[in-house]
């Protein structure tokens, strides 16, 4: 008999095992940011010194926000918007808008992320079919420019990406998200390790290892610190509703702090393994580590073309990049789908079709930003750059600040202890004191600095 005063709710799906929790949450955090953005920003900001600051950012910003989202999601047992409505139902205090920001951020990210994922899927398919066999080292830039400069190819691959992830979401939380991420992550780690072994056995590879792990602290500037903190926040999928949504699927017996720590450590490990696959090879063949965003699509194909069995390793690399992108996109699509199914009572099928369709239609503007819409600017930005700016520089940090304020100042110590200690069974009160202090003071201040830097108000 239900003796609760709350109205009865239909049985929600959830993650069924500890491995499933880790696989799903790690699959959300691991994405193209590990394979593309982390090496790119590391190369542009001096290597190991940037990595050092980034890891501090993970501990002081990303992890506290992740734990906060887990607490909100599991306590409420609802989607990103509904969770705030349940925990603070007063209409005069619209904390639910924090969840709305997360849903909007998920859409904004997917508008351009599916475009880049389409590039990765296309390159993986081309590598698998031998399409790079006759591409010379000096031709990789031309191949990439030609591809993104066309309209049909990138649009087709963007829709292929959306179809793939939609099929997972339609299957549900347990049979779709949990099953797929548990299958994909081991493959990703194996492929990364194979690429690492090959890169580390190249002549001159140690220079790349030194670049990644031997910090020159004189290279740490205010700009490097803010870039590292911003990446740490973006990399662990916080502030975009994913961890709140996934938190609502985590069982009461799972340790939320332990899950967050495992995800942060594993995600950082994937980033470092990606760096070990890239920088030793880049240095071994005399390429520049600061190539920026072109590192993945221009420099990497050129590097692998230069080494023995390069075609094989190039294929492995883009397949693992496609796997990483898939896990992240699954979590992003689940955010609006969970909202529509629970708040608007849509079926999972139609919520997925609508969300993916909207992402494809509006996202096509980002895809065409490198071809037919390249000269169409909004506030001086292409649609691709606009969606990136609105999500990364505004929505995510604003959402992150309000998540910290809600958990640190509004939710109350009692709920924090109940959820984060599993009603006292975990004996981690000392850790929770550190968490509470960090989420109240350190994390929100740091995120505000990232926000001001992203808006150009704070000049680093």
Please name the defining characteristics of this protein.
disordered N terminus, globular, Hydantoin permease, 460 residues
Structure characterization notes:
The chain starts with 17 loop residues before the first helix and ends in a 6-residue tail after the last helix. Residues 1-9 have low confidence and may be disordered. 55% of the residues are buried. The protein has helices at residues 18-29, 32-44, 48-76, 80-87, 96-128, 140-148, 152-171, 173-200, 206-213, 222-235, 242-247, 256-284, 294-306, 310-343, 348-367, 383-411, 413-420, 429-454. It has a single domain (19-454), classed as Hydantoin permease, CATH 1.10.4160. It contains 18 helices and no strands. It is an all-alpha fold and 460 residues long. It is globular and about 60 Å long. Helix 5 crosses helix 7 (152-171), helix 7 runs antiparallel to helix 15 and helix 15 (348-367) packs across helix 16 (383-411).
User: So, the CATH homologous superfamily?
Assistant: Hydantoin permease
Which CATH class? Mainly Alpha
* CATH topology type: Hydantoin permease
Q: Biggest sheet: strands, sense, closure?
A: none
- Sketch the topology as an H/E string, one letter per element: HHHHHHHHHHHHHHHHHH
Number of domains: 1
Principal-axis shape equals globular
* Overall helicity: over 70%
């Amino acid at each position: 008999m239900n003796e609760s005063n709350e109205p009865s709710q239909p049985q929600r799906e959830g993650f069924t095992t500890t491995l499933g929790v880790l696989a799903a949450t790690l699959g959300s955090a691991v994405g193209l940011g590990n394979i593309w953005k982390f090496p790119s920003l590391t190369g542009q900001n001096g290597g190991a010194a940037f990595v050092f600051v980034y890891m501090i950012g993970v501990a002081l910003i990303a992890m506290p926000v992740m734990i906060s989202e887990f607490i909100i999601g599991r306590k409420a047992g609802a989607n990103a918007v509904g969770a705030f409505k349940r925990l603070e139902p007063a209409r005069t205090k619209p904390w639910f808008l924090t969840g709305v920001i997360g849903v909007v951020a998920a859409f904004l990210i997917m508008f351009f992320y599916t475009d880049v994922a389409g590039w990765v899927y296309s390159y993986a398919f081309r590598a698998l079919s031998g399409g790079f066999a006759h591409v010379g080292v000096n031709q990789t830039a031309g191949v990439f420019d030609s591809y993104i400069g066309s309209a049909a190819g990138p649009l087709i691959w963007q829709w292929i990406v959306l179809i793939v992830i939609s099929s997972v979401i339609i299957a549900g939380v347990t049979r779709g998200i949990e099953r797929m991420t548990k299958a994909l992550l081991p493959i990703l780690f194996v492929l990364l390790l194979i690429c690492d072994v090959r890169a580390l056995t190249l002549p001159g590879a140690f220079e790349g290892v030194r670049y990644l792990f031997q910090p020159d602290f004189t290279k740490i500037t205010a700009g490097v610190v803010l870039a590292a903190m911003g990446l740490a926040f973006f990399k662990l999928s916080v502030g975009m509703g994913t961890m709140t949504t996934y938190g609502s699927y985590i069982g009461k017996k799972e340790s939320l702090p332990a899950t967050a720590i495992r995800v942060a450590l594993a995600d950082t490990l994937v980033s470092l393994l990606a760096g070990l696959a890239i920088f030793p090879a880049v240095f071994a063949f005399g390429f520049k580590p600061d190539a920026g965003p072109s590192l993945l699509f221009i420099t990497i194909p050129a590097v692998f073309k230069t080494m023995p069995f390069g075609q094989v390793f190039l294929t492995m690399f883009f397949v693992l990049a496609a796997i990483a992108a898939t896990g992240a996109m699954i979590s992003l699509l689940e955010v609006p789908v969970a909202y529509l199914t629970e708040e608007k009572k849509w079926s999972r099928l139609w919520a997925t079709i609508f969300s993916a369709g909207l992402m494809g239609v509006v996202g096509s503007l980002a895809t065409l930003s490198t071809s037919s819409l390249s000269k169409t600017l909004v506030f001086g930005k292409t649609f691709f750059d606009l969606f990136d700016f609105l999500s990364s520089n505004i929505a995510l940090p604003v959402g992150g600040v309000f998540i910290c304020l809600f958990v640190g100042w509004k939710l109350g110590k009692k709920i924090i202890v109940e959820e984060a200690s599993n009603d006292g069974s975990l004996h981690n009160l000392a850790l929770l004191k550190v968490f509470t202090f960090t989420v109240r003071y350190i994390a929100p201040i740091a995120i505000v600095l990232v926000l001001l830097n992203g808006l150009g108000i704070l000049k680093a």
